[in-house]
Amino acid sequence: METLRLADDEAGLARAAALLRGGALVAFPTETVYGLGADASDAAAVAGIYAAKDRPSFNPLIAHYASADAAFTDVVPTPLAEQLAAAFWPGPLTLVLPRQPDCRVAEITGAGLATQAVRVPAHPLAHRLLQAVGRPVAAPSANRSGRVSPTTAAHVLDGLAGRIAAVIDGGPCAVGLESTVLDLSGDRPALLRAGGVTLEMLLAHARDILVPDSADQTAPRSPGQLLAHYAPRLPLRLAAETVAADEALLAFGPPLPGAGAVFNLSAAGDLTEAAAQLFAGLRALDTLGQSQGLRGIAAMAVPNREIGCAINDRLRRAAHPAK
Ligand code: TXA
Ligand code: MG
């Protein structure tokens, strides 16, 4: 299969919507990362996502909608869900809620769970695409399972060219990290994945959020968070205070001297800019480091506050891929 590269204009959108309605796989930009879309109500189309990504079938997918009203026809919102939707949708927040009895989303999308993750993305192109499709769209990050998430159309093609029908090229993603996943199906809200909507932002609405300790393997978390993730091919060393000439440096703020290659997440030490650059930086140093025969990537520390928590979560996973 040859993968079409579609422009982010009316013709590209119309083509993408028609492909999705016909059961094909189409990658598209969201404000977080590129998603690999399929009609979430079409079990065969969704099965194609798992196959194209080599994704384990027990790892559930998020259904995407053009509006909160549309999302809440498929899942049962709680009062807190409605409050958070009003505050953060469209935007980088995913809510896990019980499925409605007449939920349109195929069971395979939620990996057979009683809950379904739903999100209303803020990217204008994603919004127009979802409106044109008129059905829930299942979309994991558009990378091969376990690899670094894509923030450009070129990243998508790196992993999925020849395996999907098309990708819409909408330029780089603004947030650069996946959405925050909050489980509202239990007694207390549980943060399953740190992301674009920070814990600080959520705490303004709900004070009793369960936050899993990243070291505690028994804490509540998404099925997907147990897996190897975001793995560059070169080994990654965290909180580096020095760097060797045969290492690549992922810098934050003024770079450490002496590295064989440098990618600066944010020279100014800005966390939002660093989040947007993280996956592109890991990919760039991985490629450069391998071509220059470097032995690994050293990452400087990033402050653990606001979106820095999500950056550190992704860096820890990249450093310790659970094989
Ligand atoms: O920003 C994002 O969320 C991107 C864009 C494309 O929207 N999508 C994304 O999807 O990151 P994915 O599949 O790469 O990550 C979804 C995460 C996984 O960790 C999965 O296990 C979790 O959400 N998840 C999905 N449905 C769930 C459910 N019903 N219960 C618990 N966790 C769930
Ligand atoms: Mg992913």
TrEMBL record:
Compartment(s) where it occurs, according to its Swiss-Prot or TrEMBL record: Cytoplasm
InterPro entries according to UniProt: DHBP_synth_RibB-like_a/b_dom (IPR017945), Sua5-like_dom (IPR006070), Sua5/YwlC_C (IPR038385), Sua5_C (IPR005145), T(6)A37_SUA5 (IPR010923), TC-AMP_synthase_SUA5 (IPR050156)
Record-listed ATP binding positions: R55, N59, T115, S141, S149, R193, Y230
Alphabetic keyword roster: ATP-binding, Cytoplasm, Nucleotide-binding, Nucleotidyltransferase, Transferase, tRNA processing
Main location: cytoplasm
Enzyme Commission no: 2.7.7.87
Family annotation (NCBIfam families): L-threonylcarbamoyladenylate synthase
Name of the featured protein: Threonylcarbamoyl-AMP synthase
Organism, scientific name: Acidisoma silvae
